[in-house]
């Protein structure tokens, strides 16, 4: 893990309370000690990432898990804003959404998403997906050092 012994900071951008609960439970089941912050819409996610208003002291996440279908500002727009921002564009963005539409997959990769995962329906499958995300993105992949992401 590139951040040494520190817990990985994860921002989950998800408007469904049920999916937030599933994600939290899946991480708990794996006994992960990562810090999971939640933004319930696209506007809140960008405020969190830009450390605006109530999020002035928010930690910069090491990874973002982003739903596409969000209120106020949709996930595609959030992804475009993240990847256009010099301070944020290096943060890996995992798309985790109910969509499996080819146009959504193609569009998010054009916007530089790091991967696209369609949400499974069952808790067991959802837990397997979160375990796989953990195994790959949080255990194998070397994430950028935090000091390179703290500016701005």
UniProtKB/TrEMBL annotation:
Superkingdom, natural source: Bacteria
Biological process (GO), any one: phosphorelay signal transduction system
SMART domains: REC
Family matches, as PROSITE patterns: RESPONSE_REGULATORY
InterPro entries referenced in this protein's UniProt entry, alphabetically: CheY-like_superfamily, Sig_transdc_resp-reg_receiver, TCS_response_regulator
Residues in Response regulatory domain copies: 9-134
Modified residue annotations for 4-aspartylphosphate: 67
CDD domains assigned: REC_Rcp-like
Entry-linked SUPFAM superfamilies: CheY-like (SSF52172)
Matching Gene3D superfamilies: 3.40.50.2300
UniProt keywords, alphabetically: Phosphoprotein
Name of the protein in its database record: Response regulator
Organism (species): Mariprofundus erugo
């Amino acid at each position: 893990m590139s951040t040494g012994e520190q817990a990985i900071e994860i921002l989950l951008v998800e408007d469904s309370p049920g999916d937030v609960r599933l994600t939290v439970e899946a991480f708990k089941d794996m006994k992960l000690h990562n810090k999971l912050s939640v933004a319930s819409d696209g506007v809140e996610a960008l405020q969190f990432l830009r450390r605006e208003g109530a999020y002035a002291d928010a930690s910069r996440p090491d990874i973002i898990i982003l739903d596409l279908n969000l209120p106020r500002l949709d996930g595609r727009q959030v992804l475009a804003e993240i990847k256009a921002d010099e301070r944020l564009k290096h943060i890996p963005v995992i798309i985790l959404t109910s969509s499996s539409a080819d146009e959504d997959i193609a569009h998010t990769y054009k916007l530089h998403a790091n991967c696209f995962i369609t949400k499974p329906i069952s808790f067991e499958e959802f837990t397997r997906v979160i375990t796989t995300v953990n195994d790959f993105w949080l255990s194998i992949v070397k994430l950028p050092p935090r000091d390179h992401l703290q500016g701005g």
